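call fold(seq) -> tokens
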Amino acid sequence: MTVDFRLKRAPAYRIAYVAWKGPWSDATIRRNFEKVARWAASKGYRTGPWVFLEPGSRRWLTGVVVPGNARGDGAIRLRTLPARRVASVEFDPDVVSPRVVYHGLSDWLRGQKKDREIRSVGAYREVYRGNPWTDPRAYAHTDIQVVVRP
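ret:
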């Protein structure tokens, strides 16, 4: 499998999400993703990609892309991630370790900054085409995106 880093323009995402603060927990991430997906299904919203963000130190957001007319409810909030230029890498975590990909992406971005291709690096996010726990194709196309400023 080839893993390559590239700069691209990510579309705007309107996400319904649950946010929390605390240590990394795969069980909490999965539970919150499923909570948002159940909420969207109960409201009859068609869902798009699943998005996982770390906007701050030990802060986490798990969200599902929903239509623009969606309204938040209770613990489910809505947020629009604007279209941005991102450094992106798509890979299969069963073939290539995510730790290696994150390390490689970090080093590649450092080189891009040194060569003045980009000015700064923002937050990391993971984008899945669907539920990565139940859809093997969604998991096999994990897309890590890092917001960059040219």
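The helical segments are 26-43, 98-114, 136-140.
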